[in-house]
DNA sequence: TTCGTATTTCGTCGTTTAACGAACAAGGTT
DNA sequence: AACCTTGTTCGTTAAACGACGAAATACGAA
């Protein structure tokens, strides 16, 4: 279920690593999803359906965004029953964060313009 | 040429902030593009068409990925003329990096389960 | 000037995404 | 038991993405 169509002639380890980073980035590749994470940062406590009204999209659309964030591991949903309590999973950003740190500390060659 | 279709009824400041983060994340939301950045990290010097053979996709497809990375500001292309010299622009990751740092340092509520 | 090399643009095709409303699921409340 | 509240799933639609090959660009070299 986690296996995609593998590139077949590439080194598996590298591909996996790239995929992991890309998948987290992709999950954050939509303003609504960034806003959801932002919201969970502000109200550090978990939240229910307030997210729906916070970002101003239809409930079904918001649910889909939450699903994507859940699938990526960035957030966790705890069912409290009429509603669902969401919270961040800070560890999930690790791979992407490490990658970006490496990029930000890279020394560019010589022609910076 | 850099102007997209603006959202028009939203508060510009907030949207811009979320959009900026999301746009960088989106640019990194594909393994091939992460691999390109990775490659530029390893060979700290700029590269021409070697990227094409490095990632194993068609030249036209690779060109498109490079365009997306250029548009996002993550990389810079210097024309040397038969070819193009690419290099990283580490500053571009700033907004996303700051955001992820905030996330990674967030203290989750109480139910770490 | 003609040729070659590296890259981009174009047109196409199939897949995925984003968005919505409607319908459904699942318990708590009255 | 009938209802309410919240959240997800489904079906649809339009737009965007990803990939490719073919054609076009744009210079440097021969």
Brief descriptors of the model:
homodimer; 113 residues; two-stranded antiparallel sheet; 5 helices; 2 strands; disordered N terminus; DNA-binding
Helix and strand topology:
The structure is a homodimer of 113-residue chains.
Chain A: H1 12-27, H2 31-42, H3 50-55, H4 59-72, E1 75-79, E2 84-88, H5 94-104
Antiparallel strand pairs in A: 1-2
Chain A binds a DNA duplex (30 and 30 nucleotides) through helix 4.
Helix percent band of chain A: 40-55%
Number of strands of chain A: 2
What is the chain-wise order of helices and strands of chain A? HHHHEEH
Q: Main β-sheet of chain A: number of strands, strand sense, barrel status?
A: 2 strands, antiparallel
Shape of chain A, please?
elongated
Q: How far is the first residue's CA from the last residue's CA of chain A?
A: 46 Å
Which value, in Å, is the CA radius of gyration of chain A? 17 Å
Oligomer: homodimer
Class inferred from helices and paired strands of chain A: mainly alpha
The strand order across the widest sheet of chain A is 1-2
For the largest interface, the chains and their residue counts are:
A-B, 49 and 49 residues
How many individual helices of chain A? Answer: 5
Low-confidence segments of chain A, given as residue ranges, are 1-11
β-strand percent of chain A reads 5-15%
Mean model confidence by pLDDT of chain A: 85
Kindly describe this structure.
In chain A, a hairpin with a 4-residue loop joins β1 and β2 (84-88). With 113 residues, chain A is mainly α. In chain A, strands 1-2 form a two-stranded antiparallel ribbon. In chain A, 52% of the residues lie in helices and 9% in strands. The first copy, chain A, contains five helices and two strands; from the N terminus they run ααααββα. Chains A and B meet through α1, α2 and α5 of A and α1, α2, β2 and α5 of B. Chain A binds a DNA duplex (30 and 30 nucleotides) through residues 30, 32, 48-49, 52, 57-67, 79, 81-84.
